[in-house]
Amino acid sequence: MSFSFGVKGASKALALAAVAAKLDEVVASQPAHEADRAQITATVETYVGMLPEADAGQEVTVNVNGTVCLAQVSEGAPKFITSVGVGVSAWLSTRTAEG
Prior knowledge:
Elements: E1 2-9, H1 12-29, H2 37-49, E2 58-71, E3 80-94
Antiparallel strand pairs: 1-2, 2-3
Helix pairs in contact: 1-2
C-alpha cells in the first residue's frame, strides 16, 4: 500500500495537524498503514521541527509519501512487514491567498 499527499499550514502546529488529518484518511482507506503511522508521524515532526516558525508572509508546506507491504504466512496468522519506506519534505513557502 502506498500514499502521497501535501499540506500547508500558517504555522508548524497547523501543518502538523493537517498531516495528522491526512494520515487519518490514509489509514482509513489503507489500514496497513496503521503499522507505520507512528514512525511516519515522528519523521514528519522531526523535519517540521527543524524549520523556524513561519512569519506573517509564509506558510509551512509538507509533502509526505510512504509505502508498506504486509505478508501473512497462512490464514489467521499474524501479518508482518516485508518492506516499508517514507519520504518527507518540509519547507517555508510564501503564503498563498488560500493559505
